[in-house]
Amino acid sequence: MKLTKTNVLNNRTRSPIELSQLGFGGAPLGNLYRKIEDSDAQATLDAAWDAGIRYFDTAPQYGLGRSEMRVAEALARFDPDQVSLSTKVGRILEDCEPEDVTPEAFVDVPQKRIVFDFTYDGIMRSYDDSIARLKTDRIDMLFLHDIDAGTHGQAFEDNNLRQLFSEGGYRALSELREADKISAIGAGVNTWQICARLLSEADFDGFLLAGRYTLLEQDPLDTFLPLCIERDVGIILGGPYNSGILATGAIEGARYDYAPAPEEILQRVRALNDVCVAHDTPLIAAALQFPLGHPAVKSVIPGASSPDEVRQNVEIFETPIPDALWSDLKSQGLIRQEAVTPQESLDAS
């Protein structure tokens, strides 16, 4: 695949949003798992820009505002007419005592705690706070962040949806979109089921889905992705490696869905890797490129915490993959027959 190619995410009120097929996931810039110096964060963003990446995603959660502030510094250097930017709402950052700082996977963070709020006032405050940190009003996509059950349980999801639809959260998003303050609305979540539920309730433009349509998982092909095509809804795919195992392979300690991979998954990854080896193709390259075969998927956004990682992502993204690899994966039952591979998508265009 060539990094210069872009896809279009349509919306309901403004001109379509152009997304580079390879985007930039901003979680590592929030000091995910380890501290990154400000100068290294800026060098990483510059490397992404220099490579041709034009879509950048961030969120208040990432380093309790640090990622957004680092992206803001880079945006001042980038051509605003070429940038596509997304951030997220629903998590409000409040000053707190040191012992009350929200425990997250981020280190060296500001002294803040997270409060979930998907009401009208919560969405508006979250948006205004992000505008202040990003120092720009040119936000293209605004995603409800982790509105789904996730690790918090079904009661958490039900309460969030009540706030969204009964207490004005969706009305806030719609007003921002109709006022041309943002171009598109959606959700950044870990399950496709909540995306389908949201689409059944209201008018969304796209979703940032962490995993769920990967070399290991294609369940969304049954109902959700066809619905996206029918409704002209775009998908941005985060987590193309299923939290690690499709990047590392089935090594000891490999992680799947943020936990040690079970034996069944390890066996499937070994089988996937065997096919890739037979075609002299790195497993990680097949994993990164596979989701973009589906016409609903507009961009994949692996994270990066250094210029070298950006360059590696670009190299992986542009690795040539023989057609026979995809056909062998299908013939061996390792990916579903109805999955549209990147080559099939290219042939159809």
TrEMBL record:
InterPro entries associated with the record: AKR, NAD(P)_OxRdtase_dom_sf, NADP_OxRdtase_dom
Segments traversing the membrane: none
UniProtKB keywords: Oxidoreductase
EC annotation from Swiss-Prot or TrEMBL: 1.1.1.107
Keyword Oxidoreductase attached: yes
Pfam family, one: Aldo_ket_red
GO MF entries: pyridoxal 4-dehydrogenase activity
Keyword Oxidoreductase (UniProt): yes
Class in the EC hierarchy, top level: oxidoreductase
GO CC term (a single one): cytosol
PANTHER family (UniProt xref): GH17980P-RELATED
Name of this protein: Pyridoxal 4-dehydrogenase
